Amino acid sequence: MLDFIWNTASFIVALSILVAIHEYGHFWVARRCNVKVLRFSIGFGKVLFKKLDKHGTEFVIAAIPLGGYVKMLDGRVETVPEELSQFAFDNKTVWQRIAIVAAGPIANFLLAIVAFFFMYSIGVNSAKPIINSVLENSPVSVITEQKQFQVSAVNGQIVNDWEALNLALVSQIGEPDFELSIMPLMSVNSQFVNEPSQTYTVSLANWKFDPKKESIISSLGLIPYSPQVYLIAATVAENSASQRSGLVAGDKLIAIDGIKLNDWQQFVKVIQKNATKTLKLTIERSGSDKVLTLVPDSREIADGTIQGYIGLAPTVEAYPEQFRVSLKYGLIESLTKGIDKTWQLTELTFSTLVKLVTGDLSVKNLSGPVGIAKGAGMSADYGIAYFLGFIALISVNLGIMNLIPLPVLDGGHLMYYFFEALTGKPVPDKIQEFGFKIGAAVLMTFMSIAVLNDFNLL
């Protein structure tokens, strides 16, 4: 319940920021074009807060925080007094109208740059994409290197951490193949040294990727480096099944129900499969063996499966400092990185939309408000720098989505206005009205799919 409240609150904060910036883009340019703005609203429905400025604009915060709008004086939707006609949106030149409509998405791209700028200025700690090995008969099994290696580039695009690698690989969905560059690691005096780079062509002909079941990294057959996990209890949660069994920090796990334990994952699988069942756990404590009675608690996971858990954390080897990377830069470089990252995300989002239309990417990959809320909550958990990165990511997506040429979106209005600029005549009202209906139907369809995906109904 606490997670739900935190995720929802983070989502509302993130969405409110994105909507406010988007609508402020429209508002700011409208004012510069001498258009009278009647209302600037964050949210829909019942008005919770309202303030009138000296220009006669109502600034509103409404009860449903799922969007916003800027209402301008417009002769197409209401009767405009003759003395105010010069301030009406529909009486402005087509290029002024284009500027006002385009200002919303542009504001989102600018927000992304600013958010990334602050993120890189504050600095984020990350990890290099170090790979332990590759799976046999997987797309990346063409890599013959036996040592650990660091992924250095995808199709020539440099990747220096896991997030960059994930984004680069996502952009390959629907492609026949891609080039993967790696740098093998050689241990010299307890330090890792990068050997010369090697490049392999990875075929995606038989690649299958289901984002609900696995990461894009594992789906390709890459096995990431992870610190050694020991079968030794590090912490025991209060009022947990582990504590009730008598487990204490420092206990070494030897066997469960007479089966010798070889690694931590083996132990986890046994616990998960035996919710509420009585198990005999053999441990070593102070040099002697002891048998404890362990009854895992139960919980329901996302797919409805009942899973066992005991509230025990293992001892984990320290993560090598050499495998860590700090993404922190000076002001100028942070701005450059922010612009570059925004451009990369813009390209990726455009290519993703194209692949959705062509069928190279399944609509099952769409995420709705629940998925976004979870992302907001998780990023907020990691701190302000990560939350800024999340804001930037969603802001780019919002900017691009609004540029899609559907009549109910900014992109649809721009499509009509560019037609008017080219022909010298506005698009006939009947065609505009028909376009709005089609656009609304398409948009509602995609929104419904995204929401169904959130609840795993597709």
Describe this structure in words.
With 458 residues, the protein is an alpha+beta fold. It has helices at residues 2-32, 94-122, 162-170, 216-219, 241-245, 264-273, 331-358, 369-382, 384-403, 410-423, 429-454, and strands at residues 37-52, 58-72, 124-127, 130-134, 149-154, 157-158, 177-188, 191-194, 198-203, 222-224, 229-236, 252-256, 259-260, 279-285, 288-294, 297-300, 306-309, 312-316, 324-327. Strands 4, 5, 6, 7, 8, 9 and 10 form a seven-stranded antiparallel sheet that branches. Strands 13-12-14-15 form a four-stranded antiparallel sheet. Strand 5 and strand 6 form a beta hairpin. The longest helix has 31 residues, at 2-32. The radius of gyration is 27 Å and the shape is elongated.
Could you list some keywords that capture this structure?
single chain, 458 residues, alpha+beta, 7-stranded antiparallel sheet, 19 strands, 41% helix, elongated
Topology of helices and strands:
Blueprint: H1 2-32, E1 37-52, E2 58-72, H2 94-122, E3 124-127, E4 130-134, E5 149-154, E6 157-158, H3 162-170, E7 177-188, E8 191-194, E9 198-203, H4 216-219, E10 222-224, E11 229-236, H5 241-245, E12 252-256, E13 259-260, H6 264-273, E14 279-285, E15 288-294, E16 297-300, E17 306-309, E18 312-316, E19 324-327, H7 331-358, H8 369-382, H9 384-403, H10 410-423, H11 429-454
Antiparallel strand pairs: 1-2, 3-19, 4-5, 4-10, 5-6, 5-7, 7-8, 7-9, 11-18, 12-13, 12-14, 14-15, 16-17
Helix pairs in contact: 1-2, 1-8, 1-9, 2-7, 2-9, 2-10, 7-9, 8-9
**Overall spatial form:** elongated
Share of helical residues: 40-55%
**Rg over C-alpha atoms, rounded to the nearest angstrom:** 27 Å
> Which class of secondary structure composition applies to the elements?
alpha+beta
Percent of residues in beta strands: 25-35%
**N-to-C order of helices and strands:** HEEHEEEEHEEEHEEHEEHEEEEEEHHHHH
What would the average pLDDT be, to the nearest integer? 82
- Multimerization status: single chain
Number of continuous helical runs: 11
Count the strands? Answer: 19
Most strands sheet: 7 strands, antiparallel
Distance between the termini: 25 Å
User: pLDDT under 50 segments (min length 5)?
Assistant: 366-382
